[in-house]
Write a structure and sequence with these properties.
55% helix, two-stranded antiparallel ribbon, 5 helices
Length: 178
């Protein structure tokens, strides 16, 4: 794992270096959505590439929360599965004393419920992971999008004066600056 990560980092650095030929005196480096998407395969790396550091706690929080839920429900599923198998096999040695007061139907029902919850958490983890990749790609596409103060839109009241009828009519004016 460590060698794979090291190789990935070296290849990324080598691929980002400019060629040795002199084509232009001012190098133009575009923010590449494909690079952001590939880097986003490592959770949070795409957000770091896009310089959106505030999104890292969201990505890691989502993956951490769903990962914990997977662990929690897997543990409960395993406990109830072992109890269910022990009861089916009439194996009194492997009975769980904490579950002695529960009926066979309750043990089976809870095992199925916890397994379903674990599978839902696995799907949620996959969705959070996929959304972090999509977010990195979209952010890279919109990296140079201008959202400065010069862009604005406002609706203001206005009085229109008609010189022929010598009357003023109230209206709304849509003002767009760009």
């Amino acid at each position: 794992m460590k060698n794979t990560f090291l190789i990935f980092c070296v290849l990324y650095i080598l691929s980002s270096l400019n060629g040795m030929s002199q084509v232009d005196s001012v190098p133009i480096r575009k923010h590449n959505p494909k690079t952001a998407s590939w880097l986003a395969l490592i959770p949070g790396a795409g957000q770091i590439y896009n310089k959106k550091y505030w999104k890292l706690p969201i990505v890691y929080g989502g993956l951490g929360a769903t990962g914990y839920c997977i662990y929690y429900y897997q543990d409960l599923t395993s406990t109830y599965r072992k109890e269910h198998v022990a009861r089916l096999n009439k194996d009194s040695v492997n009975f769980n004393i904490d579950l002695a007061n529960e009926s066979d139907n309750t043990v089976e029902s809870r095992r199925n419920s916890y397994r379903r919850n674990m599978e839902i958490c696995v799907a949620a983890c996959a969705i959070v992971y996929a959304l972090s990749i999509v977010d990195a790609c979209v952010d890279a596409h919109l990296f140079y999008y201008d959202v400065s103060d010069n862009l604005s839109m406002a609706i203001r009241p206005k009085l229109n004066y008609n010189p022929v009828s010598r009357a003023a009519t109230p209206s709304l004016a849509l003002i767009v600056k760009f």
